[in-house]
Each structure stands twice: as C-alpha cells, then as structure tokens.
Write a structure and sequence with these properties.
It is built from eight helices and three strands. A three-stranded mixed beta sheet has the order 1-2-3, covered by helices on one side. A hairpin with a 6-residue loop joins strand 2 and strand 3. The radius of gyration is 21 Å and the shape is globular. The N terminus is likely disordered.
Length: 205
C-alpha cells in the first residue's frame, strides 16, 4: 500500500458499514479516504485526495449497497440470467445475446484502451478494484448479507442447483451494465419510431 497505512478508510458517525480501518490495505489506497453519511438522507459522501482513491472508494460503496442489483444486471446483459433463476429465463438470455451487449462492451473497452489519455481506463480499473474488494470481504464471511442473496441461496438448496459463487467483476461487466441501463432508459424508442413514421407519411394537421 502506498503510504496510507491501515487507516485508509475513516468513517463518519452515520454509516451502515462500520469501521474498516483494518484489512483495507489490500485496496491499495494512496491516502486516507473519508466516507460520511448525511444524517437525513443516509446518502454517502466520499472525500478523497485523488481520483485513484475516489473511484476505488466509489466502487466499494456502491457494491456494498447494490451488489445484488449489479449482479442481476450483469447476468441479464450477458445473457446469463438462467444461471440464477433457471430455465424460465432462457428467452431473456437469448434476447440479450441477440442484442450482443457483451460484444459491444468488449469493443467499447478496446476503444477506451486505445485512447491517448489513460484517465478513463484507470478510472474504470480503480472502480472495479473497489467492487472486487467488497466481494472479497464478503467471501470471508461465506455469503453476502443482503436478503436477496440469502433467498437465492435458499432457492439453490431447495432446487439442488449449483451454489451461487462470488464472481469477481471485470471492466467488461461494468461497461455492459452501463449499456444495459441505457437500453432500459430508452424504453420508449419504439414509440418514437412509430411517431416519426406517422409524421413522415401523414400531414401535420
């Protein structure tokens, strides 16, 4: 670790995560990062001295609050949802693989790596490092603490499915989630196409 010592994370009084002063040297922070929560909204605020530490802390915080959602979106976008929920999701997987989000994310990452500036590349790598640091911390506990993961683990036991493994995130996973969210937020594109065609073939009045 580059000079941050064991006190890499300094937490405010309003936090759902407790004291992380021990063991965070594996994250490789350069300086102390202060994470505080708003008293009213419980929204975390990250105070870092450099961008390297900021994105690592951001990756850790978001995964500690949204790990199940991130895992779910990753499996949907890669066309692997049936791995979690069974054959009833195969049609969704076929749809996702037909759209080719994995291929698109791979091309996006290739373009990012070819950029002259390494700022975006390093930003994504640091963000992923923060996510995987959280995953590693949960591996030591044996399972994620969220209710969703516990329910999924119980379903795996009852259906004798393969146990859900803690799968590290990659830069492709992060990019593919961004692509999937973009698709979700453009749900009205079909209506826009229809309106555009109507405007083309019909008179304005």
């Amino acid at each position: 670790m580059d000079g941050a010592g064991e006190n890499a994370f300094a937490y405010g009084d309003y936090t759902a995560f407790g004291n992380l002063s021990k063991g965070c040297e594996d994250l490789g922070l350069k300086e102390t990062v202060l994470i505080q929560r708003d008293k009213k909204t419980n929204i975390p605020h990250i105070i870092a001295q450099n961008m390297h530490d900021l994105y690592k802390a951001q990756g850790y915080i978001i995964s500690s609050e949204r790990m199940f959602q991130m895992t779910l979106f990753k499996h949907i976008a890669h066309g692997r949802l049936s791995e979690l929920f069974g054959q009833e999701c195969i049609e969704i997987d076929i749809f996702a693989r037909t759209l080719g989000w994995t291929h698109l994310a791979t091309l996006t990452w290739k373009n990012i790596k070819n950029m002259k500036s390494k700022q975006v590349e390093n930003m994504i790598k640091d963000y992923v490092a923060g996510i995987n640091f959280y995953i590693k911390s949960q591996e030591k506990k044996g399972q994620f603490t969220s209710v969703e993961f516990k329910l999924l683990a119980n379903k795996s036991k009852s259906t004798k499915k393969k146990k859900l493994e803690f799968e590290p995130f990659t830069v492709i996973d992060v990019i593919i989630i961004e692509r999937f969210l973009g698709f979700q937020l453009s749900a009205g594109f079909q209506q826009k196409i229809i309106r555009a065609r109507l405007l083309y073939y019909l008179k304005p009045e």
